[in-house]
Structures are given as structure tokens and as C-alpha cells.
Amino acid sequence: MKPQLTMSIEETRAATGLGRTKLYQLINAGELKARKIGKRTIILQDDLNQFLSNLTLYKRTTGGQ
Questions:
Q1: For labelling, which of 7, 16, 52, 60 has a CA lying 20 to 30 Å from the CA of 46?
Q2: Is the residue at 62 inside a domain?
Q3: How far apart are CA 59 and CA 10, in angstroms?
């Protein structure tokens, strides 16, 4: 089975847990790369992986320190 190269907005939403509106905000801000095929918006798996890898790591903070 070949790996999936592209994802639709709906597939990206399901994979990330992000909403449709948030995904389009990220795309419009240039933070997440997307491509158009006709009217269809697709996201390359590599671009999604890069976007996720570049997110700031969560650091737990303790109160007042």
C-alpha cells in the first residue's frame, strides 16, 4: 500500500483535530501550505508534517516560577 501523498481539508481536519475555519486561517496566514486542484484544496502530507514539526513545544509552567 502506497503512503498517502495528499490530504483534503476534511482529512487534515480529522487527522489533526483542528477545525475547518482554523485550517483556512493557517493557510491564509501562510503558516500551512496548501494547493488547489480546480476548486479542491489539498495539503501535501510533507507540508502538514513540516507544519506540525515547527510548532512550539509545550512547556509546563509552575505557578509563579
A1: 60
A2: no
A3: 30
CATH number, domain with residue 19: 1.10.238
Give Cα 43 to chain centroid, integer Å.
8
Please indicate, yes or no, whether the overall pTM of this predicted structure exceeds 0.90. Answer: no
58 within domain boundaries: no
For 18-41, b where at least 16 C-beta lie within 10 A, e where not — what string? eeeeebeebbeeeebebeeeeeeb
Who wins on pLDDT, 48 or 61?
A: 48
Radius of gyration of the chain (CA): 15
Q: What are phi and psi of 18, to 5 degrees?
A: -85, 150
Q: Going edge to edge, which strands form the sheet with 40-44? A: 6-8, 40-44, 35-37
